[in-house]
Structure formats: C-alpha cells, structure tokens
Design brief:
Elements: H1 5-8, E1 17-18, H2 24-33, E2 37-40, H3 44-48, H4 50-60, E3 67-71, H5 75-81, E4 89-94, E5 100-105, E6 108-113, H6 118-125, E7 132-135, H7 153-161, H8 169-183, E8 188-192, H9 199-216, H10 222-230, E9 232-233, E10 237-240, H11 248-257, E11 265-266, E12 272-273, E13 276-280, E14 284-288, E15 304-306, H12 308-322, H13 324-336, H14 342-345, H15 349-363, H16 375-386, H17 396-399, H18 407-410, H19 412-420, H20 430-441, H21 460-466, H22 483-486, H23 489-492, H24 502-511, H25 518-526
Helix pairs in contact: 8-9, 9-10, 12-16, 13-15, 13-20, 15-20, 20-24
C-alpha cells in the first residue's frame, strides 16, 4: 500500500479506509480549468478539516472542483508531503473511546509554493471562476508591524517598491488581488480560518494597509484601491478542532495496515509533518456569509454561515467561557501537580471540579449565547469528550505558554460581565483560584516543592521580578507583592484591586504557599 492514485485503484487493500467516492484526477482537471477555491497554509488543520469538507461536497455532487493548496512559508510541506503522494492525504479521526476513523482525502487538486509557482498562483487569481481564498497561516502570518507598531523592515521595503516583485506574503497577496482586478475585475472573498480573534479584520488591515501606502506613494491608482475596498471581502470566522502533531501510535497503526513511506519528518524550517494527519472528532467552523462572487455550499458540509455578530459571539463563547479559560486554569495547576498530559488531568477529581465550576457555575451565567451553538452543550463536549481523549497528546506545559497575554480575555471578560451586571464578585471561586494558581506557578516550584520550568511568556521576567521575596513554604514572605500585578488593567482588562477581587486572590495565593501539598489543599478548600 502506497499513498498514490495508482494504489487507490486496488480498493481491496484499503479495507477500513474511506476512499474518495470520485476520481481525484477528474476533479484536478476540472479545478485547473475552472478554479473555485484556493487555500494558503498546507498544515495539519487544513488537511483534516477544510480539505475534508471539500471532499464531502464533491461526494454529495455539490462541487465538481477541489482546492488548490499553496504553501507560502515552508516549501517542503508541498515538495515532500504533497507531491510525492499525488496530493493525497490521510485524515485520521481519534475517537475518545480509542477508535480510529481513517480516510484518504483527494480534494487537493493542485499543490503550489509561493516561492516557485507565483505565476501559476497569479493565473488562479486572474480566473473569474475563483470565489474564495482561505488561509491557515497562523496569527503571526498577518503581521506587518512589530510589537512597537513599527513596520517590519521587509514590509517597509515592499511598500517602497510597490506591487511588482514584493517579497512579504501580505504584500504579495495584495498584489495578486490587483492582478485579478486588471485581468477580470471580479469580486473575491479572502477568508481567514486561523484560530485568532477577529481574524478577518487582521487580514483586512494588513492587505488594505499595504494598498493604502502604495496608493499614497503613487504605486497604484485610486481605482486599484477602490477595487480592493469594494470587491474584496474579508469574512470573519471561528474555527475549532484540536489537531496535534502526527501521533506515533497512529503511525504504527497505519504501518500495521500495510502503508509504506508515511512516517513523519522534520523540514529544514522545523515543521514536523507527515503524509497523515490526526485530529479529534469534534469540529466547528463558523463563517461570516460575505462572499461577493458566490461560494461553495459549505453549509451542506456542516459549516455555519451567518452574520459577523454571530461569528464574534461564537468566538467569545469559546474563548471567554467554554474552552480556553478551562484550558488555562487546568494547565497551570497541572504543571504544579506533576501532569504532562491534559487527558491525564481529567482523571484528577480536584482539577475536574475546578474547570466544571469555572465553566458551568461561574461562566455560563454571563455568557452571551450565539444561538447557533448552545454554550452548555459546548462545555459538555469539552469536559466529557475532548479533554479526556487519550489520543490528544497535549501538554499543560504547552497550554501554559503566554498566559499573561491570555488572562485578560479568558478570565477578564467574565469579571467585566460580573461587574457590569452588578453580580457578587465574592461568589466567584474557581476564577480567582485560576488567577492565584497562575501567579503561584510563576514561582517555578511545584506542589512537592521541586523546581519546575515555567513556560515561555513575554512578561515572565517582569512578573517574576514583581514576585521577588516570596518563598514557597513561607507564607509570611508574602508582603503584598501581588498588588502591582492585580491592579494592572493591561493584564486583566480591569483593576482587580479597585473592583474588590484582589483580596480573595491574595488569600488563595497565600494558602498555596503553605508548603508541600498546599496547592491541592487550596483546590479542595475553595471548591467544596
């Protein structure tokens, strides 16, 4: 068994796999002649989610074209992971019960790289039939400025040079849209599917920011700029599907099935990838229905097409209440209690009580329901299926990275809602416990008083300096050091000292300093 079109002709040997119920070669030919969907970012989430959605639509007879996939960062994903396999991929769904669902995905009709295939990509952009260009390039892929809001040097060079021969991806994207304007003038939707807040806005700001600079510099005309602002849409979206790196146990199962040459490898740009992708079963994709040149009937494959407010509300539900706050709370406590897997933490009654209290009792009363999804059902799925899934090799140490950048949304928004609705802040226990636990974690000592490594965080040095003088095992060394942190609105979105929540967090924090076992004792004390 080899992952190629020739091998698929012998369907008998692929027993146990869902094979494309169509001829991928025919779909590829249709796509070359009349491209409809182009995607940038050939990573795992794309191959196991949007590419599978497209496969479903083809099998339903709702589409007769596939996706042209383009890699703008790591060419080897295409040259080593797509083309040797005839652009086929294996999607493996990891059931929480230990089951595997295996599928050969044939909807990727063509694979290109921005570095070597720019003119072919331009041809696709110039095709009137093209309706959508989607992206999974990670949040940093949209950045044209640094943290100080200064233009990145390479972007500044592209602004100076103009659309011809630009080197940075966002500038190249703007230039490709202008090629489309001059070739056919048809509208186009640029759809970010990256897991970040207001993703469509980030993409729009980058593309139009570059175009505006070109216009002001006389590099493009007023009509060029008008096309980008009126005929190119930037729908917002919310995507949710945990897709870890290729799992060794999955690889062994595929090899046992008889598959050859599918083992993971690391590219020269340090991408860990393989011809197969493994992911959890639950998945959500909510997209603002803002397509000015038509679109595939994505809703028939389970995508929610809706308005921008609903997309935003769905994203807020996930990030402020139903998933991300639970992840952060359990990760800092998991690190202190010696866990290295999220799924193992779900066997710990104290941690499960923490996240259930945080989600159900404290978060749900103030969450705004997006209506297309039920918040309680979303949490049910998270705590009953997603977090306990033993196939999800996610570590609390990874989730605990950059926590200072996350707490303002994941905890701060709920706090703001309690204040706005004049709810009793003293009724909160799990939320202040999560904050206290994060600050206790920053002391780099676990619950058995052993040193641990604190995950990377841009504010780590600053925060640890503020905690100087505090010694685990000596509660008396706490002399109000948390106050400067808890009053920092830039971290939490509000001044926790001023609104009256700081004292409770301080009490919890001091309890967790008592000595070995104090962290677990605090969890039990405040969550009874």
């Amino acid at each position: 068994m080899k992952l190629n079109l020739e091998s698929l002709k012998n369907a008998e040997q692929w027993k146990g796999y869902h094979l494309p119920a169509y001829d991928p070669a025919v779909i590829a030919e249709n796509t070359r002649n009349k491209p409809q969907w182009l995607h940038f970012g050939a990573g795992n989430i794309f191959r196991v989610f949007p590419a599978v959605l497209c496969q479903r639509l083809i099998e339903m007879g709702e589409m007769d074209t596939g996706i042209i996939c383009c890699e703008s960062y790591d060419d080897e994903v295409v040259t080593r992971c797509f083309r040797p396999y005839d652009n086929l991929s294996i999607a493996v769904v990891l059931g929480a019960d230990g089951s595997l669902e295996k599928e050969v995905v044939g909807s990727m009709a063509e694979s290109l790289t921005m570095k070597y295939d720019y003119e072919r990509i331009a041809q696709v952009f110039e095709s009137p039939s093209l309706q959508m260009v989607s992206f999974t390039i990670t949040e940093k892929g949209y950045a044209i400025r640094n943290a100080a809001q200064e233009l990145l040097p390479a972007v500044a060079a592209d602004l100076e040079a103009g659309p011809e021969g630009c080197k940075t991806f966002m500038a190249q994207l703007a230039a490709l849209c202008l090629r489309r304007y001059h070739a056919c003038g048809e509208a186009l939707a640029l759809v970010s599917m990256d897991n970040c807040s207001h993703n469509g806005e980030k993409l729009q700001n980058a593309v139009l920011g570059i175009a505006k600079a070109w216009k002001l510099g006389g590099k493009i005309t007023e009509k060029d700029y008008e096309y980008l602002t009126t005929k190119i849409s930037f729908p917002w979206s919310m995507i949710d599907k945990i897709t870890p790196r290729p799992n060794e146990s999955v690889e062994k199962q595929l090899i046992a099935d008889g598959l050859e040459d599918i083992s993971p490898f690391v590219t020269s740009k340090n991408t860990y990838t393989a011809a197969f992708v493994n992911a959890e079963k639950p998945q959500y994709l909510v997209i603002e229905d803002l397509f000015l040149n038509g679109r595939p009937p994505l809703e028939k494959a389970g995508v929610y097409l809706t308005d921008r407010d609903t997309v935003n509300c769905t994203e807020r539900m996930k990030v402020t209440t139903c998933l991300n706050p639970l992840h952060t709370a359990m990760s800092v406590y998991g690190c202190m209690l010696g866990y290295t897997l999220i799924s193992k933490e779900m066997e710990d009654e104290d941690i499960v009580r923490l996240i259930k209290t945080l989600g159900y009792q404290e978060g749900l009363p103030v969450v705004v329901s997006p209506k297309i999804l039920d918040p309680k059902s979303f949490i049910d799925e998270v705590v009953e299926q997603r977090f306990p899934n033993p196939f999800m090799p996610d570590a609390p140490q990874r989730i605990a990275t950059d926590t200072s950048q996350k707490v303002g949304i994941r905890f701060g928004e709920t706090i703001k809602s309690y204040v706005a609705e004049k709810r009793d802040l003293d009724s909160l226990n799990a939320l202040p416990l999560a904050i206290a636990g994060w600050l206790r974690y920053l002391l780099a000592v676990d619950d058995e008083l052993n040193p641990i490594e604190v995950s990377s965080d841009p504010m780590k040095d600053e925060l640890q300096a503020a905690l100087a003088g505090i010694t685990v095992g000596k509660p008396e060394t706490y002399q109000g050091q948390l106050r400067s942190i808890l009053s920092n609105e830039a971290i939490f979105g509000s001044d926790l000292v001023k609104i009256g929540l700081a004292e409770k967090i301080e009490r919890m924090f001091v309890d967790e300093l008592a000595g070995a076992g104090a962290v677990r004792a605090a969890l039990r004390k405040y969550l009874q």
